[in-house]
Amino acid sequence: xxxxxxxxxxxxxxxxxxxARASRWLADYGATVVKIGPVPKDEGVQxxxxxxxxxxxxxxxxxxxxxxxxxxxxxxxxxxxRADVVIESFRPGVVDRLGIGWEAASARNPRLVYCATxxxxxxxxxxxxxxxxxxxxxxxxFLHCGGRGPDGQPPVPGLTVADSAxxxxxxxxxxxAALVRRSSTGEGAYLDVSIADGVLGLMALAxxxxxxxxxxxxxxxxxxxxxxxxxxxxxxxxxxxxxxxAIEARFWANLCEQLGLxxxxxxQHDDAVQDQIRADLxxxxxTRDRDDWTARLSAADTCxxxxxxxxxxxxxxQFVARGDFVDAHHATHGTFQQVGPxxxxxxxxxxxxxxxxxxxxxxxxxxxxxxxxxDEVAKLHDAGVIA
Length: 387
Hints:
Layout: E1 9-12, H1 17-28, E2 32-37, H2 53-56, E3 60-64, H3 70-81, E4 85-88, H4 94-98, H5 102-108, E5 113-118, H6 133-139, H7 142-145, H8 161-185, E6 189-194, H9 195-202, H10 204-213, E7 231-235, E8 241-245, H11 249-259, H12 274-285, H13 290-297, E9 304-306, H14 310-313, H15 317-321, E10 325-330, E11 334-339, E12 353-355, H16 363-369, H17 374-382
Parallel strand pairs: 1-2, 1-4, 2-3, 4-5, 5-6, 10-12
Antiparallel strand pairs: 7-8, 8-9, 10-11
Helix pairs in contact: 1-8, 3-5, 8-9
């Protein structure tokens, strides 16, 4: 199945996190992605995600190589000679100590795009800090600007925004930009993807406001952080919720009319009455069930939509009509559904995707394609360097 990145080969040294998301999306754009992990004796050094995670490794190949062994390092560099992209997610300095970093790899392949993903980047006082999604959202200002619980506690988001957008999507954009430049210059590139930097980039509207005006964004500070009743969530009679994002005046006026609250149409940004407007909206929304409000408001130019659970979202008529879910088959777990290649420009298969068994590898074929003889591959197996 050809895609926009057909002919591009990616070596992915990550098992989970932003780098794994990046290679997942590159594969869905048609790239040939090879997941490179440790041999069985060292398999504990990487997290093993559940079989369904990262789209069950559809359209991915796998090679197991002991990078600590000189022969394993050489095997990887042979693969890198024919690759277009390498993605890694070790702490800064680790790949250089292993001898598989940018300098070693680009010396063998000057056209290589080498993407290093890490929590705080390769430089700076936090470069060696351990961290996860919530930490990066914390230092980037995201958590501070969210809503607050009764005790003022910043919320735990239900989505890994930092890993997905701050890290994975940033890596994909950077890789694609480097490939575009390479097409005209022939030069590879080293990409230092910092997840925390990515979160800061996502927070640019708020950060730029503070830098330019001195006004510090936070909860209820501005439109996007809950200052006005026209941009909020409201409970319904059945214990469910509606999201209201009537930013433009005409949408707000439409909503007020539909809710029988026309008296508030001209007070959208009147700080003195926001608590009263919010209370009135809440009271009206509590008179009907969520799906009743959805039927009445969502198509009436009000910028109102239901808050769906994950179970409801995967059964939602819009996503189903868009063909956003596909079938996959796993030898042990059978046939199941998963989110398909949903980003613009991605190709979807009409047949069920193969969900790769974690024990199945393509190491021998990949090394043979890289120029190793059958004898050399056999010796690597005997030495426990590959699997």
